[in-house]
Amino acid sequence: MFPYKAEVTEPPFSADGKTTMIDYVPLPKASKIFRSIIKNRAKDGTPYYVDAMIAPIMGENGKPKKYLGVRYDITEAEIERQNARGVLGAIDASYAYIEFDLTGHMLRANKNFLDLMGYQIDEIRGKHHRLFVDPVQSASPAYQQFWRDLNAGNPQSAVFKRITKAGQEVPRPARKCGSRRSIRR
Q: pLDDT tens, 81-104?
């Protein structure tokens, strides 16, 4: 999976006199352990990322006498994470998005959704999805089945009529996807 590289060094240089990663990160105090994702640059200037941990090896006097540094290359995973963040940012900027818990209560919504529906996040967080639905529709067996299907993990695609805060009808093509953690729309 990830190649591990471990070093035990005398602060601040290794036995051969070369600088170690310990020179670039704060050393742990006393018996504390430092752990962080660190961005480095290769000799050719390309960035790479390591998940690094530095632990002091304590001497008899109670002070660190050596440090154990363990790091592994997470460059591929970090680049994938950054790319996914970019994609999610583009989706957030382009689509109206809302997320519900499994019972249909709102967890979060993006600005596009809030603007479209005329709400502030504090007005809808924790409220049920039926806030956006005609009362007759929300009382129907079809609406109850809709939530059962989402909870079972069956996605729903259709044009759904929604009611804004001002009482206006908004036909929205939407894809509703259920998961065990939450339901995204």
A: 999 999 989 988 988 888 888 888
Domain-embedded: residue 133: yes
The pLDDT confidence band at residue 10, using thresholds 50, 70 and 90, is very low
Reply yes or no on whether the pLDDT at 52 is more than 60.
Answer: yes
Residue 104 β-bridge partners: none
Instruction: Answer with the one of 44, 78, 112 that is the final residue of a domain.
Output: 78
- Tell whether 89 is covered by a domain: no
**Most distant CA pair in the chain: distance in Å?**
78
State which of 78, 112, 138 marks the end of a domain. 78
Q: What angle do CA 70, 11, 5 make, to 5 degrees?
A: 20
pLDDT at 23: 46
What is the distance between the alpha carbons of residues 113 and 120, in angstroms, rounded to a whole number?
A: 10
Residues comprising the chain, all counted: 185
Q: How far apart are CA 118 and CA 162, in angstroms?
A: 12
Query: HSE of 22 in the Cβ direction (CA atoms, 13 Å)?
Result: 25
Q: By residue range, what is the domain housing residue 137?
A: 95-184
Are 34 and 22 in contact by the 8 Å Cβ rule? The answer is no
Sign, CA torsion 46/52/58/63: positive
